[in-house]
Amino acid sequence: MNESATKDDVVLIAKRWKNKRGSLIMALHGLQNRFGYVPRDAAMELAEQMDVPLARIYEVITFYNYFKLKSPGKHVVSVCMGTACYLKGAPKLLKHASESLNISPGETSADGEFHLQMVRCVGCCGLAPVVTENETLLAKVTVDSLEAHLCKCKNKEKEKA
Ligand code: FES
């Protein structure tokens, strides 16, 4: 995981929710929204940023089935369906990603390489429409730029094989 991307993302999420009611759960939602699960280093950073013991964070994560501790796929592709992204063509991007990866939103490919999901606003509405692939944020995405990125991921996996 790219450390500075993670730290920046967590700082943003913590800033948004710190000192608000129910803030820890909302911040964890934010993390899972961003990464598709709650990575350990992100949980540690969140503990520091929100001044909450790490044990408390894990208590919450393990209490709610919703939170995942492991990445559901090697490449977690998240299409933002928040209002700004939706209005700028997110549904078309989701449809394309689904066809290109041959999985529906919420599914993981049989080989475990890709997981596709819809997420709500990731906090970068000015860059809409936004898609993330793990810690990489793609801005002002078009069907072509999305396909180019997915191809890059697929080729990377082929090279490794
Ligand atoms: S609606 Fe997509 S980033 Fe805000």
Brief descriptors of the model:
7 helices; alpha+beta; globular; Glutaredoxin; binds FE2/S2 (inorganic) cluster
Could you walk me through the main structural features you see in this protein, from its secondary elements to its overall organization?
By secondary structure, the protein is α+β, with helices and mostly antiparallel strands. The chain folds into 2 domains: 3-63; 75-160, Glutaredoxin (3-Layer(aba) Sandwich). Helix content is 52%, strand content 11%. Strands 2-1-3-4 form a 4-stranded mixed beta sheet, sandwiched between helices. It is globular and about 40 Å long. The chain starts with a helix and ends with a helix. Bound molecules: FE2/S2 (inorganic) cluster (FES).
Concise synopsis of the structure shown:
By secondary structure, the chain is α+β, with helices and mostly antiparallel strands.
Order of helices and strands: HHHHEHHEEEH
As a whole number of angstroms, the C-alpha radius of gyration is: 16 Å
Strand content: 5-15%
Distance between the termini: 21 Å
Number of helices: 7
CATH fold title of the largest domain: Glutaredoxin
Structural class: alpha+beta
Envelope shape: globular
| Average predicted confidence as pLDDT | 90
Can you tell me the CATH class of the largest domain? Alpha Beta
User: How many individual domains?
Assistant: 2
Spatial order of the strands forming the largest sheet: 2-1-3-4
CATH architecture of the largest domain: 3-Layer(aba) Sandwich
Question: Biggest β-sheet, characterized?
Answer: 4 strands, mixed
Helix content: 40-55%
Give the cofactors and ligands. FE2/S2 (inorganic) cluster
